Each structure stands twice: as C-alpha cells, then as structure tokens.
Amino acid sequence: MDRRTLLVGLGVFLLIGIVAIATLLFGSPVKFRGTTYEQPYPVAPDFVLTRGNGSSFTLSTMRGRVVLLFFGYTSCPDVCPTTLAELNQALGKLKQSDADRVQVLFVTVDPERDTPERVQEYVDHFNRNFIGLSGAESDVAKVWNDYGVFREIVEGTSAAGYLVNHTARVTMIDQEGNMRASFGFETPVDDIVHDLKIVLKEAN
Description:
Elements: H1 3-26, E1 35-36, E2 48-50, E3 56-58, E4 66-72, H2 79-92, H3 96-99, E5 102-108, H4 116-124, E6 131-133, H5 137-146, E7 151-154, E8 163-166, E9 170-173, E10 179-183, H6 189-202
Parallel strand pairs: 4-5, 5-6
Antiparallel strand pairs: 1-10, 2-3, 4-9, 7-8, 9-10
Helix pairs in contact: 2-6
C-alpha cells in the first residue's frame, strides 16, 4: 500500500469517527415530515385580534406553547372542517400533558360574516380548547399579508352565499415563537403528530 492510499484511508476513517462521535453527542439529525423553514427560523409575525368573548388576543402571549395556526372561515364547505377535525385528531394522539402544551388558532378569512363570537362557536364544535379569532377587516387583512395567505371572494349560488378561496396550510410555531414547519391540506394526521413531538421534545 503506498503512502497516498494510506493517508486517504486514514482520512476516511477519521471522518467516520467524527460523525459517529457527533451522533453520540448530539443525536441523529431530526427530520420533519411537514414543509420546514430553514435556519435561522423566521419569527412568527405578532398580531392582535379579537376572541369570541370580546377580549383581545395577542399571539406573543403563546410563548412557551406550540401553536398550530390555520386560516379559514365558518361557511367553508370542506377544507376548513376537515382540517380542524384532523388537528383535533392529532391532539388526541398526544399524551394529555403534551396536548395541553399545544394551542390551535383559527383566524377567519371572512370577517364580513365571521364575528368573533361566530368563529369561536364554530371551532368549539371540534375542540373547546381551540381559539377562534376575527376582527376588523383591516386588522385581519394585515395578518393575512404577514403570513402570505391568499384570499379571494368567489360569488356562489348556494344558500351559504359567496365562497372564499384561501390558502389552506397549517403553520407550526414553536415555544420560542419561531415558524418551524407547515402542513398542506390533507397532510396525514400521523405526520403532524410526528412533527409536534419533535418540537415538544425540544423544550423538555
């Protein structure tokens, strides 16, 4: 064996050793199943909206909890009820102590019809711990803009009136207020649970 081959072999062996030690010390890289945000993680834009009881809600008061943020409306025929039902299922797959550290927020994209009271009554059908939020259109529109939410009124012929096309993604915000991952419509519930457990474990 010549000297060059020996050096290459030793270099590879050393690299393998470093990786093995790093894995033992820091653990294997954790992979999310949702769409992830790259480091440095973007801080979730703060906002103030109105709850069903008329009080103000500020996102930053959720620090210390994992937030699942979803935008929708109470007259939605399919996407919104499906998503809220799946988020409720996801919480049900967690230990109660972990589920208590997760807060689902539902922000309306239809403030003209969705009063704060109506939004809260709507989310209560799925889980009474979910928080529904609305407010003046100018206030809610700023939140849509900050989170890149597309929203479009579509005139309908049904008894429910017009429909609202909107972005249908759930944003996961960690305990420090950072945006960590998002989940598209009909993401498997087990994938959401998997990613929640990762973020919840980080705070232990």
